[in-house]
Amino acid sequence: MADHQRIHPVPEPEQEPPVQKPTVPLVPKGSFRSEKGDPEKQQQQEQPPFRRRTIPYYPPLKPPKKRCCTCKRCLCCTCCLLFLLIIIIGGLGAAFYFVFQPKIPNYSVDSMRITQFSFNTDMSLLFATFNVNITARNPNKKIGIYYESGSHLSVWYTGVKLCEGSLPRFYQGHQNTTVLSLDLSGQTQNATELLQALQVDQQKGSIPLNLRAKVPVKLKIGKLMLMKWKFLVKCRLDVDSLAANNAIRIRNSDCKFGFRL
């Protein structure tokens, strides 16, 4: 007879019990927490908070204005034109100088004679009449001088005008020398102080006089007539006496020349 098979129950594998989370702190009884507190919480506190990075906002750049470029172009063109004009004027001036070689006219006081120099009864008025010989020289080879009407000459002593007159109208050619005999007359008020100063200078034998001249002229260069100019002449004289009807010796004479439009 066949052996009866025995069926033995197979024991099921033992399941490990689920791990339970501790409900009590892991610090043993009777011990104390760290002075720094809970490590987990401390680690969380030490981590810096997350900060969102902000990107700065820049407004969009405006395109340059066209007006600024236009102003720069105008300024550049103006500067170029001025520079070109200066070059042209300088070139014309240099050409004029080398072609015509202009020179300054020369003037000198050669002699002086007093026909009247007297006071009234109360010495309050002075009457003076001078005859002055002036030599004018034009050293230019290609420039002529037209002396126009409206000139004015005067003789001064210590800031007081003694007499005055004018030049005749004439033309002075190239490299010409002209001698002018001029009569100047005038009267001076409140001449008492003037007489006292004059007596002191006559005793010294040196009387300072100033002759001033303003003469309108026109220059002729070749066939071209230029605009009207005004010659300014100042002469410092040193004479020995101002007695009437007496020979007056000019001890020193120094004339300076200038001009203006």
TrEMBL record:
Keyword check for Cell wall biogenesis/degradation: no
A Pfam family recorded for this sequence: LEA_2
Lineage per the UniProt record: Eukaryota, Viridiplantae, Streptophyta, Embryophyta, Tracheophyta
Domain Late embryogenesis abundant protein LEA-2 subgroup: 134-236
Region named Disordered: 1-58
Source organism, top-level taxon: Eukaryota
Keyword NAD: no
Entry protein name: Late embryogenesis abundant protein LEA-2 subgroup domain-containing protein
Keywords: Membrane, Transmembrane, Transmembrane helix
Biased composition (Basic and acidic residues): 1-11, 32-43
Subcellular localization, as worded in the UniProt entry: Membrane
Transmembrane segments: 74-100
One GO process term, biological-process aspect: defense response to other organism
SUPFAM superfamilies: LEA14-like
Major location category of this protein: membrane
Record's bilayer topology term: Single-pass membrane protein
GO CC terms in record: plasma membrane
